[in-house]
Amino acid sequence: MKRKIALVTGGFTGESVVSLKSAAVVARTIDTDKYDIYKILIFPGNWYHETASGEKIPVDMNDFSIQLNGEKIKFDGVFNILHGSPGEDGKLAGYFDMLNIPYTTCDALTSAITMNKGYTKAIVKDIPELFVAKSVQLFGNEVSHKESLLKELRLPLFVKPNNGGSSIGMSKVKAPQELQEALDKAFAEDSQVLVEEFVSGREFSIGVYHAKGNTTVLPATEIISSKEFFDFEAKYSPGVTEEITPGRMNEEEVARVNRIIEKIYQKLNCKGAVRVDYFLEHETSKFFFIEINTVPGQTETSLISQQVRAMGMEAKDFYTELIEEMFT
């Protein structure tokens, strides 16, 4: 008998657009010989399953079930592809934990911590061979911040919302007079902001997942952007960036990166597939941790999708491994 899997998508943030695209790819790629897939869309105050005819079937949030053709459908597990809140920040994970429904992504605690860039860096900074840029975490947009930041940190600076993804609200500050505008932009997205020194290096993003008793580090993608940095436009606009998979690293760099990535995955107690962004500093090749994404995109052009293909694996088999892992 086939397992019933809820494919959760949508969300409460601007990343819902990307989530819906990811879910469309997963829905048509997943192995329907093994699983019955029900796409569940989650928006503020509106959780529903949409039938082929366009009828919206509300979700009973008491037990996360739907009534379809006179039958109560309860799900064996959840394939979570909801970027941002509530799918990536631990809220949904906690809800599913209370209902004892397994899911493909990190648990509530790991999800909540990793959404906070500052807290994540504090946890991983002691990993051997891993470096983090000098930074300051701000709690509120105070006028006094500008002066203290310029004393404590060295320009250029990256200013970004501490929670969230897709590089929304991020700025690169090269001159003191640009700092306040960057802070205003970041605080418009979040009540916490991370300001960190710029690291000059080659930028990479790499996927890692656990299945069948093994942690697998995927081939890294090297990101070469025509913009100042890998912002929202660079991530989602065709032609703005060049993405090379596998990225150009020598054997020593590949081995060292894979060691570090596996330790990051273990130390943060990750589950399912996550993606880590990092720099290899020019001249020294030191690994500088940027951030981790615990619900990475799954569109055809998403980095994880490119990396799975580069490993010689079919996306269908990759999704099957993620689903089966949540039942182990």
From TrEMBL:
Pathway: Cell wall biogenesis; peptidoglycan biosynthesis
Reaction equation(s) it catalyzes: 2 D-alanine + ATP = D-alanyl-D-alanine + ADP + phosphate + H(+)
Keyword Cytoplasm: yes
EC number: 6.3.2.4
A GO molecular-function descriptor: D-alanine-D-alanine ligase activity
Cofactor(s) this protein requires: Mn(2+); Mg(2+)
The ATP-grasp domain, residue ranges: 117-324
Enzyme's top EC category: ligase
Keywords: ATP-binding, Cell shape, Cell wall biogenesis/degradation, Cytoplasm, Ligase, Nucleotide-binding, Peptidoglycan synthesis
Cell location: Cytoplasm
InterPro entries: ATP-grasp, ATP_grasp_subdomain_1, D-Ala_lig_Van_CS, D_ala_D_ala, Dala_Dala_lig_C, Dala_Dala_lig_N, PreATP-grasp_dom_sf
Similarity comment: Belongs to the D-alanine--D-alanine ligase family.
Name of this chain's protein: D-alanine--D-alanine ligase
Lineage, broadest ranks: Bacteria, Pseudomonadati, Bacteroidota, Cytophagia, Cytophagales
This protein's encoding gene: ddl
